[in-house]
């Protein structure tokens, strides 16, 4: 066997090994989350409706007093209320910044803005949380009241955190559009804004949707920065200034205090399974959008 064929076989074997390793890790993670996440229903006897819709959280309640209460409704609501407004604010802002970078800014401006976006993406989550805690929370308390630690502080911090993801993916999607689209639009007498609004943005729709969905996935999965500014009160929020708790916050705060195999610990695994299902849902949306665009 020649040395070239030997190197080819080694390379092919190594890539297959890496593929098998990633596949095995993925299956293992899904198996662990599904097996542990469903234990709260099949072992501890908690109904899915009670877990999802109830807000009564007393996982350590003795059996003599009625057993543990593990309603995660307030946490699920908190995750949605913090994440969705953040996406609603950041999606149009991020897409417009991407349009400016690709279509309007001069070359030196593109480099400066792209470097700024990359820097925002590289900042650790704890820094965002610290800045929010030191600057944003007192600002909200001083001007709006409510103590500052609130739903409002959480979604504002998240809005900034997911911006780099939306900008980067949107910028990449706009840059790969064929130049013929723009030239044809200008040839028909369209202005720059008409070309952007009626030609470029529709053509990059799949990339823009992917950017928003990835931003949404990051918003749902963020734990530390949000936990530092939302107050972590385990009740239904009553206003935008109310303290709130998210699924990720409860998992990070309670996992170290719960005992493996208890209803408390199993409920935390179930919350992790919910987050995993949300991530899989985001991936499914991206696949469906890309397939729909490919059919067109």
From TrEMBL:
Q: Which GO terms describe its biological process?
A: phosphate ion transport
Q: Which residues cross the membrane?
A: 14-34, 78-104, 116-137, 149-177, 198-220, 267-290
Domain ABC transmembrane type-1 positions: 76-286
Arranged from A to Z, the UniProt key words for this protein are: Cell membrane, Membrane, Phosphate transport, Transmembrane, Transmembrane helix, Transport
- Please tell me whether the keyword Membrane is annotated for this protein: yes
Q: Which Gene3D superfamilies does this entry report, sorted A to Z?
A: MetI-like
GO cellular component terms, alphabetically, are: plasma membrane
Q: How does it sit in the membrane?
A: Multi-pass membrane protein
What is an example of a GO molecular function annotated in this UniProt entry? phosphate transmembrane transporter activity
Keyword flag Cell membrane = yes
Q: Where in the cell is it found?
A: Cell membrane
Spell out the InterPro entries in the cross-references.
MetI-like, MetI-like_sf, Phosphate_PstC, Phosphate_Transport_Permease
The record's listing under CDD domains reads: TM_PBP2
By sequence similarity, the record places it as follows: Belongs to the binding-protein-dependent transport system permease family. CysTW subfamily.
Q: What does this protein do?
A: Part of the binding-protein-dependent transport system for phosphate; probably responsible for the translocation of the substrate across the membrane.
Protein name as it appears in the record: Phosphate transport system permease protein
Q: What is the lineage of its organism?
A: Bacteria, Bacillati, Bacillota, Clostridia, Eubacteriales
